[in-house]
Specification:
single chain; 516 residues; alpha/beta; Rossmann fold; 2 domains; six-stranded parallel sheet; three-stranded parallel sheet; globular
Length: 516
């Protein structure tokens, strides 16, 4: 995992405050563990080099969010679709340099038919078997049932958006961190609903819900498994009520970098969903057409503000693992004593001390702290993330390797060459970068420049509540079915084709079985 560093600035010559943060900052749900292959519950399959997955592109016409891709979703609105507002809406959606077709509004008759069909099915699902997280899922379905009669009352005839997620950190956010942005966002939107099932129940739960589900969010390994499970997961001739490929999205912090060794990926654009990088939902504006959803930052009103003149002359090194200090992408261990002695700042670490990776000399080890104590410490030193730092008039220092410029172009995959893409995009005087392989003089100069350059509170424009809300609304406004048809025509496909290199990954990570 990658880490970052952050540096506090001070206007007081007697009380210099800096904080150099070395940690992985993954907002609540954008986090990924190493993929572990299950030793049991796997389906032994062979994968021929020409294996393909069927995707029905010639089925009968249906509403845009039905379970089959059909060219009818590309036709223009008819006179019966007359419930559009007086001012015509845009016909496309823009995100991360990609233009998507916008969903066409349904007419009143279509909504009435869909309402009756979905309410009946919701009642059947609630009365039957919900495979996992019954209380949450039943509650979401009850809310959806209550909302359906309201659809069209405001003149907008739009099917409610229902995500079925198997992403493993969703239940943590919903049940353990009930104040999380994910839970708050979901509960604040009447026409957006979130259901959860572990991967082994994903196909079964989807089949029971059918076209009630408009989007499926899974982890990267699960998306690969699903696309290659034509019996229990993805839509196929053997599984006609399975999940259509155009509904399957990878919710991923890392995206799909070119040449990523974890998946034996080529040095060219690729994605977990073979339809394209647009089906990767990511936290930053990654290259290769990934869909940028991003974060929402609420500001620093929840912490006591301490003026720079009253802060301590300390640097908070935030690294949960001491092993991070020994990675090539970061400052060498022998530089910490020099940095401490030359700047006069105390360097504090709250990391674990792992066997074989002692905390380097020059750092004061406090060890992990309870959240309350940690927050109190930060109010005296610096806040704990990039955005909170900037909102508290605290400059931020991130590390780069000399192969990558301090502010890389949008087309560049930073990888281990850059620690924090969002930070790199902002630049001075808010964010400074240092080359971890550069001279100690350059590092110290950058540190002191940041310390002695006052800044005003700053929240990146993309991280305001309004900006995130717009991107979420845009995501749900896209006609993904029509866009998938467009991509398939570009590729000359009649059905979705699994990338050849994925069979090598599947050989090491056999399919995890779906429950019947």
């Amino acid at each position: 995992m990658r880490a970052f560093q952050q540096l506090a600035s001070s206007r007081n010559r007697r009380s210099v405050l800096a904080a150099l943060v070395l940690s992985v900052v993954l907002a609540s749900v954008f986090y990924r563990e190493e993929i572990r292959s299950a030793a049991s519950n796997v389906v032994p399959l062979s994968f021929p080099s020409n294996a393909k997955i069927h995707l029905n592109s010639t089925a009968a016409a249906s509403v845009s969010n039905s379970t089959e891709i059909d060219s009818s979703s590309m036709v223009e609105a008819t006179p019966t679709q007359a419930h559009i507002e007086a001012t015509p809406k845009p016909t496309t959606v823009e995100n991360n340099h990609v233009t998507y077709p916008r969903l066409l509004p349904l007419n009143e008759e279509e909504i009435d038919a869909l309402r009756d069909k979905h309410i009946r099915r919701i009642e059947e699902v609630i009365a039957g078997e919900i495979p996992t997280y019954y209380e949450w899922n039943a509650g979401q379905l009850e809310r959806l049932k209550e909302y359906w009669p309201k659809v069209g009352a405001n003149g907008k005839f739009e099917q409610p958006k229902v995500i079925l997620a198997s992403y493993g950190y969703v239940p943590k956010q919903l049940f353990y961190y009930r104040r999380s942005h994910l839970a708050g966002w979901n509960r604040s939107k009447n026409n957006q609903y979130l259901l959860y099932a572990g991967y082994d129940n994903l196909g079964k739960f989807y089949r029971s819900l059918g076209d009630i589900v408009t989007h499926v969010w899974s982890m990267d390994n699960e998306v690969i498994w699903c696309f290659n499970d034509t019996i229990g997961c993805v839509e196929s001739p053997e599984n006609p009520s399975g999940i259509p490929p155009w509904k399957i999205f990878t919710f991923t912090f890392w995206g799909s970098p070119q040449g990523w060794g974890n998946f034996f990926a080529p040095h060219e654009p690729w994605s977990f969903n073979p339809l394209g990088g647009e089906w990767n939902i990511v936290p930053y504006r990654y290259p290769d057409k990934h869909f940028y959803l991003g974060y929402h930052f609420t500001g620093c009103g929840d912490l006591l503000y301490i003026p720079p003149t009253k802060r301590k002359d300390q640097v908070a090194i935030l690294a949960k693992r001491s092993e991070y200090f020994y990675r090539d992408a970061f400052l060498q261990a022998d530089l910490w004593p020099v940095l401490r002695n030359r700047t006069g700042l105390e360097l504090i670490s709250v990391s674990n001390s792992e066997e074989g990776f002692p905390v380097p000399d020059g750092l004061t080890l406090l060890g992990p702290l309870p959240r309350h104590d940690y927050n109190l410490m930060l109010t005296e030193i610096v806040s704990e993330s990039l955005c909170k730092s900037l909102s508290w008039r605290t400059s931020y220092l991130t590390i780069q390797r000399h192969e990558m410029p301090g502010r890389p172009e949008e087309s560049a995959w930073c990888g281990d060459h850059h620690q924090h893409q969002l930070a790199a995009d902002i630049g001075p005087p808010y964010v400074y970068t240092v080359d971890c392989e550069g001279s100690i003089e350059d590092i110290i100069d950058t540190v002191m420049t940041a310390v002695n350059t006052p800044i005003e509170p700053y929240v990146p424009p993309d991280m305001t509540k309004e900006a995130l809300t717009q991107r979420v609304d845009d995501y749900f406004s896209i006609d993904w079915k029509a866009y998938a048809m467009e991509r398939m025509r570009e590729k000359g496909w009649e059905r979705v084709v699994t990338q050849e290199f994925m069979y090598r990954w599947l050989g090491k990570h056999p399919l995890k079985a779906q429950k019947a």
